Structures are given as structure tokens and as C-alpha cells.
Amino acid sequence: MSKHHPETLAIRTQLERSVHQEHAAPVYLTSSFVFDSAEEMRASFAEEKKRNIYSRYTNPNCAELVEKICLLEGAEQGVTFATGMSAIFSTFAALLDSGDHVLSARAIFGNTHTLFTKHLPKWGITHTYFDITELDEISSKIKRNTKIIYVESPTNPATEIADLERLGALAQKHNLIFIVDNCFATPYLQQPIRYGADLVIHSATKLLDGQGRTMGGITVGGAQLIDTIYRFARVTGPALSPFNAWTISKSLETLAVRVERHCKNAHELAISLESHPKVKQVRYPFLPSHPQYELAQKQMKAGGNIVTIEIHGGLEKGRDFLDAITMCSLTANLGDTRTIVSHPASTTHGKLSKDEREAVGITDGLIRISVGLEHIEDIKSDIFQALNQL
Questions:
Q1: Domain check: are 105 and 173 in the same one?
Q2: Is the CB of residue 61 less than 8 Å from the CB of residue 80?
Q3: DSSP string, 87-144
Q4: How far, in Å, CA of 341 to CA of 30, rounded?
Q5: What is the distance between the alpha carbons of residues 377 and 383, in angstroms, rounded to a whole number?
Q6: 258 CA to centre of own chain
Q7: Which pLDDT value is given to residue 314?
Q8: Is the entire prediction scored with pTM above 0.85?
Q9: What is the pLDDT of residue 24?
Q10: Are residues 301 and 180 in the same domain?
Q11: Within 10 A of 36 (CB to CB), how many other CB atoms are there?
């Protein structure tokens, strides 16, 4: 199967058919799996025989999802999780020991920031932030106890692009684990392992499912690192439900066509917003005006579905813009078939100080638009009428 194109792999990679010869994989809603004998049970628990034992450990639906993402990302193994944040936490918790240090991009998801600043320090794990647009400074921030380099690319919500190849080379030089959150790009647009990443994390809740129906997370990468993460997850229990795994796996069959339409709509919306008088700035990785346009072109197949705009008027006008929306959704998600608008400074990043927000490109007037699959003229109409009311 690996000789096929990604679009085909996402559709044709599936579980071995049962005696019923089903065309689509069934859902394995079972907590445990039976054994034919005491010896088979002993050998399975001793890991002398590879098979399903208990759905907190492994489940056929989760295994199918892992196989698909590994093929799409070019990874050896993977582990599924109940949510994207459980994937992030479990990955760090499994790999880090007390006294270790994480070198992280400053522009990361708000809950990941809280993990670094509030929770990991309780176990003696420290971090240092760096600006992904100023990589010349990063070498000076590597410490004797640094173990991981971590980035999101594109970043949330400012759509900054990390130079994955340069970071991968730096991690290899200093024997560090390089982890990339690839949620915004998906493996259809970007494969960080090609550029030196050791592990790739996804919130499958977003574009991988793509329809706002379910939650999930996954980490894929080298077999040795994944084994460490799997054994941590097996004990701590952040397991993905079989039904959610089945749903996300089926969603991957339409990933290519969905993401292509997302990107087409987002690109057209971004271009149209550049000339609007109420908009100070538009950020979209595949706009020539984006500061890292050339890097985005090198690493990504297209620009993704996130467009950010900065409007005049700060916090007050940001809220006014959301109140003027009539079709698009106001909700805490992204990567949905439906276009979603949000105002990070008063919502997802509202608990950060103004200085902390501005350090990662979140101004008071920043609007994040997760562009959906509706007709582009309807998306533009709603966004423009809301802007015109400001």
C-alpha cells in the first residue's frame, strides 16, 4: 500500500476484514478481548504474542487510525488519545524526568502554555521560550538539561511558520527530541518528519475529523519514542474511544478533498480582505505579504484554512465584529466544515496578559477565521457585512 498516493492510502488502509467480509471497518465497541486458553492469555500479557487485550491498551479501530496517520506522516508507530491535549500532555509526561528542560516556541496553544508554566514545574520540569522568527538566538537557549524542542507550525492564531528543516538539524546536532504539533497543516499539507521531526502530534478533533463531531488526539514518530509514550498511556489511561477512532479514520477518507476546498476558500478570502478599509493586516501563509511566505511555500502544499485579520478598534471592535456575524459560527473549535470566527484576546487567550499575547502576535484587534466549506461568496458576504458595521 505504501506505493500509493496519500489520498489513496487514507481511503484504502483499513482493518483486515472479518468473516462477514464487510466493506467498511466495523466499530469494535468492546472493553476487552477473549482468549482461547490460559497459555494464550499469559503469552499476550507477557507481550510474547501481539494481540488485543483491553481497549485501554489497544483496539482495532485505534490501530487502523494509527496505521493511516503513520503512512500519511511517514512515521513508524503511533499512539491515539482521547483529545489533542491528552496527546500533548502524555507525550511530554512520558519523555520528561524531573530536572529536564523544554525549549519551546513562544507561540503555542494556550493550554500547552499553561502546562509548561503551571503543571510541569510541579515535577521539576522547566522550559524556555524562543521566537520562531528569530532562530539565530535559539542555540544560546539550549541548556545542559534540555531534552525537547517543541513547535507548532503554522502557529495558533498568528499563522507564523517554523523553519522545520533548520530546527530538525539543530535538534540532531544537540541530540534533542524534536516535536511538532502539525494540527493546523495536517499530514496532507505538511510532513514534519521529512524535515527532521522525531514526533508529530495532532489534535484529531480539528481537521482530521473536520466536521466538529468528536474529539481525539494522536502522536506518531519513531518506534522507540512511541513505545515509551504508549507504556505511559497504557498505565495512565487517556484512551481514545473505539467509536471516535472509527469516526476519525472514516473522516481521513475525505481529508484531501476537504483540505483542498478549505485552502481554496481561505486563500480567496484572504486576498479579498487585504483591501478592506476596516482591516489593518491580513495573515495567511500563502499570501505574498506574509512574512514567511517563501518558507511556507517550501514546507506546505497549500496555506491551510486559518486566516487572521487585525481590525481597527481593539478589544471593543473585536467583540462588535463577533456580534455582527450572522452565518459563521462563534465557537471554540477550528477545522470544521463550517466557518468559525473567534476573538482570541477576549476568549482563548484572554487569561494571558496583554504583553504575553502581543509577544505571540495576538493583538487586541486580532480575529481568527477558520474557513469552512460553505460557498466562498457566502463566507465573504458574512465577514464583509460584519466588518462594514464597525
A1: yes
A2: no
A3: HHHHHHHHH--TT-EEEEESS--HHHHHIIIIIGGGGT-EEEEE-TT-GGGGGGG--T
A4: 38
A5: 10
A6: 16
A7: 85
A8: yes
A9: 86
A10: no
A11: 7
Instruction: Look up cell 502546562; give the residue.
Output: 115
pLDDT at res. 359: 79
Interaxial angle between packed helices 255-273 and 376-388, expressed in degrees from 0 to 180 and rounded to the nearest 10: 40
| In a shared domain, residues 243 and 282 | no
**N-terminal to C-terminal alpha carbon distance within the chain:** 53
The three-class DSSP label of residue 334 is coil
Say what the pLDDT of residue 1 is. Answer: 55
What CATH number corresponds to the domain at position 75? 3.40.640.10
Q: Which pLDDT belongs to residue 347?
A: 78
pLDDT in tens, 308-348: 999 988 888 988 999 999 999 999 899 999 999 999 888 77
- From CA 197, how far away is CA 10, in angstroms rounded? 22
Say how far apart CA 311 and CA 281 lie, in whole Å: 7
Structural domain of residue 287, as residue ranges? 255-388
pLDDT of residue 56: 96
Residue 1 forms part of a structural domain: no
Q: Which amino acid is at 143?
A: K
With a cut of 70, which residues of the chain have pLDDT below it?
1-2
Residue type, 8: T
User: Helix, strand or coil for residue 341?
Assistant: strand
| 3-state percent breakdown (helix, strand, coil) of the chain, nearest 5 | 45, 15, 40
**What is the model's pLDDT at position 361?**
81
